[in-house]
Design a protein that fits this description.
By secondary structure, this protein is α/β, with parallel strands linked by helices. Helices cover 29% and strands 30% of the residues. It contains nine helices and 17 strands. The model has no long low-confidence stretch (mean pLDDT 94). The structure holds flavin-adenine dinucleotide and FE2/S2 (inorganic) cluster. Flavin-adenine dinucleotide (FAD) binds next to strand 4, strand 6, helix 2, helix 3 and helix 9.
Length: 287
């Protein structure tokens, strides 16, 4: 059992949980993820390690409530326990001194970008951060990103905060201004990562994306996270989740990401019909 010790609402439908998981925290690195199960009968869902404190044994996850399990997780409160919390999974981000790098986070993607930007800055890189959201209320962790980057630029699609436009508008500006960028990292919704890759391809700027393909076991055995990268089949859980964005078959990924839509719809309907209850872990929050 893994005890929730802190909860914060960061934006509408976006929540943060700090979870006591000393073994996971002891080994966690930027770019990795965990697979959790809220209770015995729950489904397994992957969540990125958005932050970690090795000394306190704490992992921070930030999630968006998009369906049954993330909604259920969002009802849990400090003192509740998560039944399974497996990790760290996936390959850590490749961190070295590249020189000038740009880290782009769109929507919930800001959370996974944050520890990577911090690690890149700690490695001596000049890190320009770009964060974007649909509207002002969905901007979160601006302060954390500012501290993790040498410079931060913020945008909202509707112009309700900071610059009006998309992250790609700011990215083009940064590329044109700075010229000598060695690497771009982009994490966010699939269409955003695809748009970033289309732009950086024009400038021959190497771009890393983190793929949120559907995962079940997270250990390379079930094949559900299969993606095509550079014409080869890769498993995002063990070969990624980060890949060269210019090599990713985004069209195939988009098709595969919706294959369980009917089941997901049924699952949330049943959850709502049953009263959208908070899962009871049975440990009384004492463990
Ligand atoms: C490596 C990785 C890291 C992730 N990190 C985060 C994170 O930090 N924060 C966050 O909010 N989300 C993250 N996700 C996505 C998150 O796992 C899904 O939002 C979650 O599984 C949705 O489950 P649900 O029951 O709430 O919604 P559902 O209604 O079941 O699904 C909604 C959508 O979520 C996606 N999804 C569903 N099940 C899975 C699954 N088992 N694996 C992956 N995607 C799924 C599908 O695109 C689906 O259409 C990550 C995904 C991956 C692969
Ligand atoms: S999640 Fe099963 S192979 Fe990757």
């Amino acid at each position: 059992m893994f005890k929730i010790i802190k909860k914060e609402v960061l934006a509408p439908m976006i929540k943060l949980l700090e979870i006591k998981a000393p073994l996971v925290a002891g080994k966690a690195a930027a770019g990795q993820f965990v697979i959790i199960r809220t209770h015995e009968l729950g489904e397994r869902v992957p969540l990125t390690i958005a932050d970690f404190d090795r000394e306190k044994g704490i992992i921070t996850c930030v999630f968006q409530e998009v369906g049954k399990t993330t909604r259920e997780l969002g009802t849990m409160i400090p003192g509740d326990c998560i039944t399974d919390f497996v990790g760290p999974l996936g390959l850590p981000s490749h961190i070295e001194k590249f020189g000038r790098v740009v880290c782009v986070g769109g929507g919930i993607g800001v959370a996974p970008v944050y520890p990577i930007a911090r690690a890149l800055k700690d490695a001596g890189n000049d890190v320009t951060g770009i964060v974007g959201a649909r509207t002002k209320s969905f901007i979160f962790w601006e302060d954390k990103m500012r501290s993790a980057c040498s410079e931060l630029r913020v945008t909202t699609d509707d112009g309700t905060y900071a610059r009006k436009g998309f992250v790609t508008d700011l990215l083009r500006e940064v590329i044109e201004e700075k010229g000598d960028i060695a690497l771009c990292l982009a994490i966010g919704p699939l269409p955003m990562m695809q748009a970033v890759c289309a732009l950086t391809r024009e400038y021959k700027l190497k771009t890393i994306v983190s793929l949120n393909s559907i995962m079940v076991d997270g250990t390379g055995m079930c094949g559900s996270c299969r993606v095509t990268v550079g014409g080869e089949t890769k498993f995002a859980c063990v070969d990624g989740p980060e890949f060269d964005g210019h090599e990713v078959d985004f069209a195939e990924m988009s098709r595969r990401s919706v294959i369980y839509k009917p089941q997901e719809k049924l699952s949330i309907e049943r959850y709502d019909e049953a009263g959208a209850r908070r899962p009871g872990c049975g440990c009384g929050g004492e463990k």
